[in-house]
Amino acid sequence: MILAESIPARDEGSRMSAVNVVEEKRPCPQCGSVVPWRVQFSYGNVWAYEYRVGDRLNWGCDFPDKPYAHRLDVGRPGTQQVVVLGTAEGCPICGYGVEELLDYEVWVEDDRITKVQPSTGRYHVTEDEYVILR
């Protein structure tokens, strides 16, 4: 368990590496097994939340009086449509995607995860790893 007090200070130019995970059952592109496909992404309150497609993102910090509270939210709550770059954890059966990074898109509409798909390469994301469409 990570204690909130143990979060190190950082300068304003560095990025936080915390991520959330969205899980969706889908066939592995290599072995065809239908597995829980887990995609890590940083948007919303990044406190290692576990989501499924259709879930609403959490925003805000449980520790608002702490100096790092503002750093736990990535993005803008209430945005109409956002594409977030994510990385798949890989297939737990055959290992596909475990060694190489598999880029995915996590689609968020009005703070709800609406779909997860392999990256199309269509969207140029910012250093924050998301792009606001509307």
What order do the helices and strands come in, and which of them pair?
Blueprint: E1 20-27, E2 34-41, E3 44-45, E4 50-52, E5 73-74, E6 81-88, E7 102-109, E8 112-118, E9 130-132
Looking at this protein, list some descriptive labels.
37% strand, disordered N terminus, two-stranded antiparallel ribbon, 7-stranded mixed beta sheet, 134 residues
Describe the structure.
- The protein has 134 residues and is mostly beta strands.
- 0% of the residues lie in helices and 37% in strands.
- The chain has one domain (16-132).
- The chain has strands at residues 20-27, 34-41, 44-45, 50-52, 73-74, 81-88, 102-109, 112-118, 130-132.
- The strands form two sheets. Strands 1, 2, 4, 6, 7, 8 and 9 form a seven-stranded mixed sheet that branches. The chain has a two-stranded antiparallel ribbon with strand order 3-5.
- The model is unreliable at 1-16 (pLDDT under 50).
Whole-number count of domains: 1
Shape, per Cα inertia axes: globular
Strand content: 35-45%
Uncertain segments of ≥5 residues (pLDDT<50)?
1-16
The SS-based structural class is mainly beta
Integer-rounded radius of gyration: 15 Å
Give the fraction of residues assigned to helices.
under 10%
Most strands sheet: 7 strands, mixed
Name the average pLDDT: 82
Measure the end-to-end span.
Answer: 37 Å
Care to count the β-strands?
9
Number of helices: 0
Brief overview:
The chain is an all-beta fold.
